[in-house]
Structure formats: structure tokens, C-alpha cells
Amino acid sequence: MITPRITMTRMQFGFNFLLLIAASSINGNQQISKSDALKLTPEEEMAHFVNQSRMVTCSHPDHPEVRLKWRNPKNAIISETKGRVHIEDKGDSLALIFEAIARTDQGNWTCEVDVEGTATATEGRVTVPALRKSFKMIVYEPISFRDTNTVQTAVEDKDATIRCEVKGHPEPSVSWYFNGQPLFFSNNGRYSKLADGMSIKKVVQNDSGEYTCKAFQISATGSSFEEKTIRLNIKHKPYMPPWKKSISDAYGYVGGMVNLTCEATAEPPANFSWSANNKKLTPKSHIIYNGRHVSMLQIMIKTSSIFGKYKCEAKNELGSVTQEIHLKEGTKPDPPSLFQLRGVNSDTLDIDVGATKSHDIPPDPTTVIGYRFELMPTDEYLKSRSWDHASRRDFDVADGATYLLVQLIPDTKYLIRVAARNAAGLSDWTEVKEFSTHPVQPHGTSGSCAQPTDACFKFVWLLAVALPAALSITHHRFADLTKGRF
User: Which N-terminal residues, if any, form the signal peptide (predicted)?
Assistant: First the structure.
């Protein structure tokens, strides 16, 4: 029992003696003490955003020959010398480099003396204390909108989800607005807030519009605000405008032309088709113009057999709607019997065509309901001898009204013609007349009173009586103001 104890004591003594020799033989018998500290550069803790870069160096100022190593927040040693997170040996320091910071990098990163590496480098002649120093990586993620399309759709009469997935760290708070007005969420309401957006119960067409997803983020270093506007389109079957009747009348005359118009709003836009006598009309045999929510069938009435019932159908994936138009024979109106100039200035011509409005209810289809003017500068007409490029102005009829042709070129001769319009179409054109606009008056000049008309007397009275009186009142008001009475 005594012999083993003696043996252990001798072994321990020998081991301690070897350590003493090793510690006294390196760098002039100097030993690294536990009081020596590692240095991190930069030392301050800084907040970083995702995808930013950063470099932190670790060194032992008193003993640059020691080997160092870095550990991540999970205590794993960083050994990679390339990649998103890696180390680089700078000689007297070891750098930890983040090429693109990620959210998972948040936590404590530790630099420590590589005891085994240092001992190997000095052939085992040194005793190295396990020195460590850490810094805390704080990672913020700015506000971002993921999987958020600026245009989204929903189906009428069904529940809808508007996606707006907001990401960020710290977690942003989110509020919603519809066409600029705030939305309020309740358990029993139509609107519900979701983790990745919001929902609406049984959407209607009035729910279409702009929804704004606003995100607000507060952190220790400040705050940020971002928003995303989403256009919500409601998919629905075609609807005719509320003022349209499912069956309507149209008029034309043999030798004339008529445009039959069919309107229907739909989402997605409807496809229009026309038929007559159960026979489909195609663009190959007829002139058909299609727009986003409208279709127009243009018919040249060559014979009376053209008159009859025409059917328009608007259809999309959600449904269809039809409109029937009865094309009836009417009469061609007579051209205006009166066509004269009533007034003129530098950019306007005032034309009288003897307009008289009918007050019959229902209106007679033969009654004139408007006028069409065509006009073009005389010089332009003489170049082409054609009205193809003439400016066209349409007006509704009104009792005793004259019609202003505005935005004309000063000091220019114009050729003008007029046609009357009733439910069946346009009349023949009147004879062409030429009228001229006035030159532009120089600034500060005025016309003279060549004859003693009422207008001239009023103008003289304005200059002689009204204007001095107004100036006198202004003078007294100014005097009162300077005296503090006003």
C-alpha cells in the first residue's frame, strides 16, 4: 500500500519539473500569463443588417506568436478559409470575415488561444493559458415583402385572400388601408388579418380597388417604414350597364350606315359575338370593332332586308349576358336650312344652324337630335381636295343654341360644312362655307367704339364712372388699413 503512493509522488514531481523547464526556456525564459488579454478589433458591438459584410480581427498584442481560433455561436470551430463566413490569417492576428451576414449569424462569436497549436509550433516548450474573448453579433433584417404581387384577383361572391407576406427582424407591425382609408379588423367583420396578408368574406365588385399593406419596424438603432400597394381585381360574369335595356331599338335608312353598340363590363373582359336570324356574324363578312368592354357592329344598309333583330352576346369563364337590338327603318334627316356665322374672335367661330329641340315624349325617331360639323384650314384642303383629315365636332341639339368651334388657329381661313343627325343617321352635308378667325390682338390694345351702340356706351360708362369710383373706394380702404381701422 505504501509503494504506490511513493511512485505517484515521484511521477508528479517529475512532471512539474518538466513543465517548469519548458516554461523557462521560451523567449528568454518568459511565460504567457493568464493576465494577458486577447484584443478584438473593432471592440464595440454593432448591429448589422442581413447581407452586409463585416470583418473582426483577434490578436494577442503581447504574444503575437500564439495560435488563435474562432468559434461560432454553436461553439463549432471555424476552419474554412473561403466562403460566406471564413477566417484569414493576417500573421499577427486572425480575421473572422462575413461576406454576407445572415440572420442565423446572430449570437456570440468567440476568439480563443489555440493551446495545442501553439504548443506544437514551439515544440511543446510552452505552457499556454486558455484565453478567450467574445463579441455579440446583432443581426437586423430590413422590411421586405415576399410573394406579394402588385395585382391580385378574387372571384365575386367568394372569400378572398390578399397576400402580403411581411418579413423583418425585429418583427414589423402591419396595418391595412383600402383606397387610402384605414381598415379595421374584428372577429365578426368581413375583414380578417392573416399572418401573410388579409381576407375578405364574400367579395363584391365594390371590393375592387387599391389595398395598401403598411409595415412599421422599431429596433434599438432606430425605426423604418415600408408599404406595398396591391390592386385587387374582382373576377365576375358580364354585366350590362344599368342604364341599358336588354332589348333596344336602333334606326337606319336604305343607303345609309348604322352602328349597333353592345356594352358589358366583365373580369376577365368578355368575348363578344353577334348574330342575326340565328346566324353568327363574323369579321370576314361584317365590320366589327371590339374594345375591352364594348363591341360595335357597323352595318351598311343596302336593302330593306337588312332591318330586323340583331343579338349580341358577351361571355367569359364566369357567365354571359345577351342584348337584343331591333334595327328599324327610319328616315334620313334634311340638312340644316340655316348656316351662318354669328360671332368670331382669334380662336373661336360661333355658328348658327337654326337649332330647335323637340320636346316630344317619347321622342320621334325622325326628329333632329344633333349636328355634326367638319372643318379644316382652307390651305390644307387645297393640298388634298379631301375631307378625310377634317376635324369633326358633334353637338346635341338645344333650343336657339349656337355652336362654338373653339381652339382654332388665329388669322386662319376655315372651310366648314354641317350635317343634321337623327336616330337613323346623318343628313347630307350643307354647302361648304369659308370663315376666318381674327388675328391675335397685341397685348394691351383694345377695340374702338366705331358706332354709338349700347355696348360702346356701357364701356364708356365703365371707364368714366365705375372705374374711378372703385379706385376711390380702394384708396379709402387703404387709408383705413394704415390707421388700424380695418
Answer: 1-28
